């Protein structure tokens, strides 16, 4: 099977395994139909950007953020809005002001061990961000690439697991 072409969403058996493990681990409720295998998180970011962003669409990013994501986004020529990041994650008041005054289509965030700051977003901010996304009808691209690298303590819930409207796209990495 591995030596043949397969469906582009990835081997069903592996997707099933990920659904079981990831869904339990990160409390994400999902099924096979909502999981896609990619060539790393980077391709997941690129595919999401291609799906969501047209030229000049508003895109919120943390300032600073992962340079590879910026490179992927730039290809689709969005208008970037940079939100300062603090020790406990994005400045949510700044985010709300931005969402109030600009047409934003997507928020890109790395809530766990953010690249490059290492910041972990607080639970309160995770809740506030999903509420703001619901209020202003914005999609969230949550990048959980470093989530599994925790050495001690408990992970906080993913933003995806707090999402009741299906507006969070979650990417991760092996
Ligand atoms: C925040 C973040 N997301 C995604 C990636 C890329 O992950 P992958 O190697 O799975 O494409 C990196 C790599 O540095 C990263 O720092």
Number of helices: 5
- Biggest sheet descriptor: 6 strands, mixed
The CATH superfamily title of the domain at 52-150 and 159-174: Type I PLP-dependent aspartate aminotransferase-like (Major domain)
Rg, alpha carbons: 16 Å
Taking pLDDT < 50 over at least 5 consecutive residues as the criterion, the unreliable ranges are: none
What's the short story on this structure?
The protein is an alpha/beta fold and 174 residues long.
Spell out the key features of this protein.
18% strand; alpha/beta; 5 helices; binds pyridoxal-5'-phosphate; 174 residues; Aspartate Aminotransferase, domain 2
Give a verbal description of the structure.
This protein has 174 residues and is an alpha/beta fold. It has a domain at 52-150 and 159-174: Aspartate Aminotransferase, domain 2 (3-Layer(aba) Sandwich). The chain is 34% helix and 18% strand. The protein contains 5 helices and 6 strands; from the N terminus they run H-H-E-H-E-E-H-E-H-E-E. It has helices spanning 12-25, 40-52, 67-74, 92-101, 123-136; strands at 58-63, 79-86, 89-90, 104-109, 139-143, 168-171. It has a 6-stranded mixed β-sheet, sandwiched between helices. Helix 2 (40-52) packs parallel to helix 3 and helix 4 runs parallel beside helix 5 (123-136). It is globular, with a radius of gyration of 16 Å. Pyridoxal-5'-phosphate (PLP) is lined by residues 40-42, 66, 68, 110, 115, 143, 145, 173.
